[in-house]
Amino acid sequence: xxxxxxxxxxxxxxxxxxxxxxxxxxxxxxxxxxxxxxxxxxxxxxxxxxxxxxxxxxxxxxxxxxxxxxxxxxxxxxxxxxxxxxxxxxxxxxxxxxxxxxxxxxxxxxxxxxxxxxxxxxxxxxxxxxxxxxxxxxxxxxxxxxxxxxxxxxxxxxxxxxx
Length: 163
Fold this sequence. Notes:
The chain is α/β, with parallel strands linked by helices and 163 residues long. The chain contains five helices and eight strands. The chain has a single domain (7-162), classed as Rossmann fold.
């Protein structure tokens, strides 16, 4: 997944939603992200993330929090955001991917120029844009699809208003 991102991780603030084992966020940290916040509602999975962070010596630059998504996003963004890179990997077939994108926009959780990577079922049709989030690529790998969104920068928004 990291190979298809439009830019490299360099001191970015990462948010890993529906984090599971934390593998994606931990990989981001290993590739140079400055910090990561992992959101996982399952206490057993949260414990595993904490153990994995300790094993990788990332406990000083990472945080694990609970909360039911997408509802918990506003509080997480207020406390720890906004973020440069957001991973969204909700359970398939529950329409949570679209709801989470909308909640990210409402909470202003993504920095201008920031990316959102959504893992979803190929059967889920993702929108081309959600407010200032524009889909830049979509790839399907068997039973998994990745949609990558980029938040318009302030310059992009000004150009659209001027033109």
